[in-house]
Amino acid sequence: MKKDHPSKERTLVVIKPDGVQRSLIGEIIKRYERVGLKMLALKMLIPTEEMAIKHYYEVGGDAWLEEVGRKAAASYEKKGLKSPFKTFRENGTAIMNANAKYLSSGPVIAMIWQGNQAVGLVRKITGGTEPLSSDMGTIRGDFTLDTYQMADLGQRSIRNLIHASGNTEEAEKEIPIWFSKNEILSYRLIQDEILYDVNLDGILE
Ligand code: CDP
Ligand code: MG
Question: CATH code at 40?
Answer without folding.
Answer: 3.30.70.141
